Amino acid sequence: MKTCNTCKTDKNLDQFWKKPSSKDGLQAKCITCFHDYYEQTKIAEAPYVYKIVCPDGAYYYGHAQQIPSMRLRTHLRQTGTSIAKHVRAHNWTANDVTMTKLMICTSKEEAATVEANYIYQGSSDPLMLNIRLRAKNKETVETERF
Fold first, then answer.
1. Which of 7, 70, 88, 146 sits in a 20 to 30 Å window from 78, CA-based?
2. N- to C-terminal Cα distance for the chain?
3. In CATH, what number does 48-136 get?
4. pTM of the model
């Protein structure tokens, strides 16, 4: 038996998905609570292009359909992304950065194209974080995909 961190109900171990990195090898949320959480946060909006701006002026472009606050938290939880690395290097939190919708699009493809255009237009700006990570890897200029 294990207690779900969300609903606080004792459930059989087969009611939790596996997570090798946790002490007991299982997710903290039961499968039911995970599904409920996912349904509330997955695709809640029309595709849009956004810009995340840090207090020092560094910024990052992206596109998503996820609720903006969820998208920002997803970025900052990840370890290998340029925006997450930059925020952590300065000990900032989600409250220290701003995320602004730049354009609402009619499709994911349109959002990806608009995002790519923003990145291309700012390709010479050293404050744009989309470029910084790619330049370090000596790859072509393109957005990060998660």
1. 7
2. 34
3. 3.40.1440
4. 0.63
pLDDT in tens for each of the 146 residues of the chain? 999 998 999 999 999 999 999 899 999 999 998 888 776 655 567 899 999 999 999 999 999 988 888 888 888 888 778 888 899 999 998 899 999 999 999 999 999 999 999 998 988 898 999 865 444 444 444 444 33
List the chain domain ranges: 2-41, 48-136
Check if the beta carbon of residue 47 is closer than 8 Å to that of residue 55.
no
Q: Residue 72 burial by CB count (10 A; 0-12/13-18/19+): exposed, middle or buried?
A: buried
Looking up tokens 């009619």, which residue turns up? 106
Instruction: Please provide the DSSP assignment of 18-67 as one string.
Output: B-TTSTTSB-SS-HHHHHHHHHHHSS-S--EEEEEE-TTS-EEEEEESS-
Q: For 104-117, give the secondary structure using H, E and C.
A: ECCCHHHHHHHHHH
